[in-house]
């Protein structure tokens, strides 16, 4: 009998692996609805849906290995990273999903609130937060919406050699800024940005990507701390913020 592996678990959702099956448990049915519909629409390899019985979604494992992990050197080749960039471009060129994404005003408000929390609670120095708030400003501008994954961490992109074999965890998919996906994919792996851009092609704004690195790291900090993760681990979010100084 296969053992049950806890992939991730916190108060919002949990993912378990049993053999070659992933069981995602999410009390928010909307996230499951989005995930299933987004995977059906996406022009890139995605996990196969085995069955769905809310609040549980069963998915088949995708072959290959993840591009890497935040805070660790990536074992994937430059060509694999370029292939990931090409897959992201295919997604961004696809028809828009029918549901909206975040509003710019909401993103600005969220950033301001999280920056205030970081300083008020002494989590990060005020100067570091202020500098990254300035860098994030480059991302907080109107954009042409595209079909975005919305949470394109390197652990969500699987490759086999130089080929993308699957992109997982689509619950945040929506209409959004193309540069946001590229930023999340390369967060903490700035040295791989050139490979991703080589595969993605034209239309990349590096200042905007750096802005989203700062935005993402600032707004994620409180959630990570409150759910038992450490954004101050080597190579993780706080190091991303320090690199902007």
Automatic annotation (TrEMBL):
Keyword line: Kinase, Transferase
UniProt cross-references to SUPFAM superfamilies, sorted A to Z: Protein kinase-like (PK-like)
InterPro entries associated with the record: AGP_Transferase, Aminoglycoside_PTrfase, Kinase-like_dom_sf
Domain (Aminoglycoside phosphotransferase): residue spans on this chain: 38-204
Keyword Lipid biosynthesis recorded: no
Keyword Transferase appears in the UniProt entry: yes
Residue ranges the record marks as coiled coil: none
Gene Ontology MF, one: kinase activity
PANTHER family the record matches: AMINOGLYCOSIDE PHOSPHOTRANSFERASE DOMAIN-CONTAINING PROTEIN-RELATED, AMINOGLYCOSIDE PHOSPHOTRANSFERASE-RELATED-RELATED
Annotated protein name in UniProt: Aminoglycoside phosphotransferase (APT) family kinase protein
Origin species: Catenuloplanes atrovinosus
């Amino acid at each position: 009998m296969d053992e049950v592996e806890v992939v991730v678990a916190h108060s919002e959702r949990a993912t378990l692996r049993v053999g070659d099956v992933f069981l995602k448990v999410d009390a928010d049915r909307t996230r499951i609805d989005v995930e299933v519909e987004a995977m059906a629409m996406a022009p890139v390899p995605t996990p196969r849906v085995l069955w769905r019985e809310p609040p549980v979604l069963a998915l088949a494992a995708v072959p290959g290995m993840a591009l890497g992990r935040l805070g660790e050197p990536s074992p994937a080749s430059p060509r694999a990273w370029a292939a990931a960039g090409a897959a992201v471009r295919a997604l961004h060129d696809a028809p828009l999903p029918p549901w909206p994404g975040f509003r710019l005003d909401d993103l600005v408000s969220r950033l301001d609130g999280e920056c205030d929390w970081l300083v008020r609670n002494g989590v990060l120095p005020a100067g570091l937060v202020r500098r990254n708030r300035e860098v994030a400003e480059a991302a907080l501008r109107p954009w042409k919406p595209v079909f975005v994954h919305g949470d394109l961490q390197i652990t969500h992109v699987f490759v086999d050699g130089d080929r993308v074999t699957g992109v997982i965890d689509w619950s945040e998919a929506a209409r959004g800024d193309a540069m946001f996906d590229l930023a999340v994919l390369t967060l903490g792996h700035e040295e791989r940005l050139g490979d991703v851009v080589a595969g993605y092609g034209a239309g990349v704004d590096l200042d905007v990507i750096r802005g989203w690195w700062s935005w993402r790291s600032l707004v994620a900090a409180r959630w990570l701390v409150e759910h038992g993760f450490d954004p101050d681990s080597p190579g993780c979010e706080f190091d991303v913020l320090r690199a902007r100084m």
